Automatic annotation (TrEMBL):
This is Lrp/AsnC family transcriptional regulator. Keywords: DNA-binding, Transcription, Transcription regulation. Residues 3-64 form the HTH asnC-type domain. It comes from Virgibacillus sediminis. Pfam families: AsnC_trans_reg, HTH_24. PROSITE patterns: HTH_ASNC_1 (PS00519), HTH_ASNC_2 (PS50956). It comes from the Bacteria. InterPro entries: ArsR-like_HTH, AsnC-type_HTH_dom, Dimeric_a/b-barrel, Tscrpt_reg_AsnC-like, Tscrpt_reg_AsnC/Lrp_C, Tscrpt_reg_HTH_AsnC-type_CS, WH-like_DNA-bd_sf, WH_DNA-bd_sf. PANTHER family: LEUCINE-RESPONSIVE REGULATORY PROTEIN, TRANSCRIPTIONAL REGULATOR AZLB. The keyword Repeat does not apply. Transmembrane segments: none annotated.
Length: 149
């Protein structure tokens, strides 16, 4: 597995502009276009780069309510509940946490009516969920997408 300072520099540049050309990347790191392409392919093959994507402002795209949930789940239902929730289009991210069998989840919905429907129909109705705690985001100061070097 190769990962050096040049790779780190490539990742820093890509994290700011994932659409930058290989030519422009090569110029910034002092390599040829072919060498940059090979390094990026290697970073993808190693799993360091998982995928390239676009960051969407959820509020401007119509998802005006952003909420975080702590969901306690009976251990024997953890995988099933986590997968069920992960498949829900309103769930932006979901993680299993340490401590009791807890899922930490970020949900994006259009309005508070949709948040209420999500809670009542998608959480309270699921077998195995024992506790739900939610917090609605009032203001975003910083949002992180992926690992920052």
């Amino acid at each position: 597995m190769r990962y050096d300072d040049t790779d780190k520099k490539l990742l820093e540049i890509l994290s700011e502009d994932g659409r930058i050309s290989y030519v422009d990347l090569a110029e910034k790191v002092g390599l040829s276009r072919v060498a940059v392409k090979d390094r990026i392919n290697s970073l993808k093959e190693q799993g360091i780069i998982e995928k390239f994507s676009v960051v969407i402002n959820s509020e401007k795209a119509g998802k005006k309510v952003s909420a975080f949930f702590e969901v306690d789940v009976e251990p024997q239902h953890m995988q099933e509940v986590a997968q069920n929730l992960a498949d829900n289009p309103s769930v932006a991210s979901i993680y299993q946490m340490t401590g009791p069998s807890t899922l930490h989840m970020h949900v994006l919905v259009e309005d508070f009516r949709m948040l209420e429907a999500f809670i009542n129909n998608e959480l309270y109705a699921v077998d195995g969920i024992t506790r739900v705690e939610s917090s609605v985001i009032l203001k975003r100061f910083k949002s992180r997408t992926g690992y920052k070097l």
